[in-house]
Amino acid sequence: MAVTTATLRDVSPGAVFAVLEDGWSYRAWVVGTKEIRHVDASWPRQGSCLHYTAGVGPISFGDVTEVKSLDPPRGMVLEARGWPAGTVGIRLTVEPTQGGTRVVMREEPERGIARWLHNPAFDLFVKIRNREALRRLGRAARRIGEPERASAHQPARGRSAS
Question: C or N terminus of the chain, fewer CB within 10 Å?
């Protein structure tokens, strides 16, 4: 099992979870995702799916990720299907910390070729990829949180009445 942890400074758990709840955002932060083709209207409820195209360069494949469980704003469990490799279980845990949010991403092959070929070198590759994914997740969450921070720091006389 590959476990990757990141502390996202100046990012609220709510902003992180807002990104996770937006199936269309996965292209922006999940490394290797080329396109989100469709997101079920019920996303991120248990059993809902997002349909994506993944790959590197000219090599690509289309498949789905399904929500296995959801515990807002603390986390979610996903099952990513990736033909021909099989399925991978992904557990995302979101925890508040002093000055930010700690995100833990646990990824483990569950079925198919990926499970048979699972080894320490595979885990290292996954950790490197997921470190970048969590960095991107933090960047996306910061963009969501920017309007709150900007209005909180804006002088009172500069605020417009709405």
Answer: C
Q: Which CATH number fits domain 2-148: 3.30.1300.10, 3.30.530.20, 3.20.20.70, 2.102.10.10?
A: 3.30.530.20
This prediction has a pTM of: 0.84
- Cα separation of 120 and 79, whole Å? 21
Beta strands in the chain (DSSP E): 2-9, 33-39, 49-56, 59-71, 75-82, 86-97, 100-111
3-state secondary structure of 46: coil
The phi-psi region of residue 146 (left if phi > 0; otherwise alpha if psi is between -120 and 50; otherwise beta) is: alpha
**Per-domain boundaries in the chain:** 2-148
- Which pair of structure tokens corresponds to residue 156? 């009172």
| Of 65 and 115, more confident | 65
